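Suppose a classmate hands you a notebook page containing two proteins, each written out with its sequence and a corresponding row of structure tokens. How would you begin to make sense of it? This section walks through that situation. The first entry is reproduced here exactly as it would appear on such a page.
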Amino acid sequence: MARARAIWVNRRILHILIIRDLKVRYSDSVLGFAWTLLDPLLLTLVYWFVFGVIVARGSIDEQPYILWLLTGILPFQWTAHVLGDSGRLLGNDAKLVTSSSLPREIWVLRSVASRFIEFLFTLPITVVFVLFFMVFTDQKVSVTWWVFVLPLAFAVQFLFNVGLGLTLSPLCMLYPDVHRIVRIFTTLYRYLSPVIYGLGTLAGVFADRGWPDWLQWVYALNPLVGILNTYHAVLFPRNTDDVVALLSLSAVLSALCFVVGWRLFRRLEPRVLKEL
């Protein structure tokens, strides 16, 4: 509780660090903050071309497929960026981390919050595509009432990302190999989460191959399953099942990840400071 109070007392400094992080990140780029929009948009177009055109992926309930990808890739990138940042969160600002009296958890919160702001700035991409399909095509696209659950999904994913940052940042600092493993896992994690496919499609694969149903709940132990399923439900309600149950499970798992990360961070902090 003392650490939580200290973070609250220093919330203005956290705000300054978040703004600084956003300004510095693209300061040496010609396009600057525009990369926040271009990066996920280009990635989405590549996935759409490969899986939607060449491979012809996407069931009838996942059409238009590019919207399906946007509602999965954009939030996934938030978590992917946090995973990528974990290896340098503490090392990049070693002098400030060691010399200041700020709670060191602030550096994790800075990364997660700044990446969240970037994620929010990418949401207009989805809005533009939704309006395009509504106005210029015959495909039925509508926003469901699940849009009102998005703030809860944001909160659950924020908690999960903070837990990841608290867990991985000290481990990556003390054991450099962990950061390399995380980089490989991030790519694999995209395919282990419902980004390219939906849970309805996955259930069909399980049924065709005769796999037991309980394996789907093992799959759901990935917190991003419930979170991304909620994002998909906003535009694709027919290919989303058990939204409330899965998001509730993700909330519990995210809280557990946060608690484990918080305790691990506190335990490893003295060793990290010596290493810095």
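The notebook's second entry, a different protein, reads as follows.
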Amino acid sequence: MSAPAAKTEGLFDCREAWVATLEALAAADDRIVVVVNDSVGSSKLNSFQKKFPDRTINVGIAEQCMVGVGAGLANGGRIPFVSAAGCFLTGRALEQVKADVVYAGFNVKLVGQSSGVAYGELGPTHHSIEDFAWLRTLVNLTVIAPADAWETAEAIKWAAAHEGPVYLRLSRMPVPNLEVANRVFRAGKAELLREGAEATIIACGTTVHRAVAAADLLLAEGIAARVLNMATINPQDEEAVLAAAAQTGAIVTVEEASVRGGLGGAVAELTSAHQPVPVERVGFPGFVPTGSVEWLFNEYGLSRDGIAAATRRAIQRSGR
């Protein structure tokens, strides 16, 4: 497989891709509705509301109610996209997500906006870094964190067609599109972005292009690192993870989330049970302070150089 390159000219807000795709889907399917918590603007749904005013339900700042309304609409045959800031959707309304949507198996699409540390200066109350850990235990909930605008659009299309609950984790931080030949979105399957036999970097969401940049840096040093875009956090692509462990002997996970229970936790659980190898988890260790997005990423090793350093540590631990 030829090595694709990250696109560097131009950054894209994945929320633009989300709403453009949703509007196209809604025009073709009148079952699609939106439920929001007074977040029409931050969810980028202004144009959707203008085009489909009778299919936009704003419940105000009442997240538990919002999720319950979504469950009721799904029970009535609609396809609701329930959109709110990830920190409030998955924190304040976790019981409703668990009981009303996932346990009941309703066809609700939960959209966590401005996830991770995208709110930056608003601090720990607005950081959404625990959502992977909370939601990954709900086994029949598909959890997807797209890496770029193209993958966001494809994930929205897949979610609309999929029968069952889905959590889509979107960011407000602009990211470059990845250039990958013959690209196909497959929920539950990792996407190979770089070949490599000395270590594997597994990333998701806003960290994927940074993982690719780290692999390019390492390659210049003579270290060939495999890079996997693990957009689907739940269910995990166990085959790809175990193959990476067996073939490269060391793994680095990178996520804009807590390292406790998220992508890194899932990979560590799987490999420790079936293919033990060193796993370096790059992410946030717990509550993180107020600060700009770039400062937080650099401070906690989610930069190109930080990911490369973690990869070197993993290789050293592997003893290869």
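A careful reader of the second entry would note: The first strand starts at residue 32 and ends at 36.
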